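We examine the record.

___
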Amino acid sequence: MESYAQPQTKPLFRVSRLALPQIDVALELLAAQLKEHGIEVENRRIREVMEKVISDERRGFILAATDMNEKILGVAYCSSFLGLEHEGESGWLEELYVLPEWRQQGVGTGLVAEAIRIAKARGWRALDLEVEADHQRVVSLYARHGFQPHTRSRFYLKLG
């Protein structure tokens, strides 16, 4: 399995798909990401989603950026969907979180680059994402990778 490594002689981190033994640490980071955006979740339910994605890659994938001691520095979660707008299977970069002390050090770039690489390898037609209105500091990260802003507004309805 290929993975993104920071382009240096001695990389500070690497990005690869999340393994089941890493799920508890990744869960804490994803829960922190959601809490940072004011979204309260039950960790048990988030873990169930993560286990389903790890066990069935048709649902998407989870990436972990780890340092050379295998400490998780950041995570990204991409879910797959079959959509009309992109005329086929596509993905949603639903969450990306980097530990505050590792931000601005290329970890987010590595996670996004690897997400794009895997999405392309799977034949996904597009990769969508959203940015919270008050979280504009990440816009340049996504723009550097070619993401374009939509002119539409997103709405949601909680069903359960």
Remarks:
- The chain has a mean pLDDT of 90.
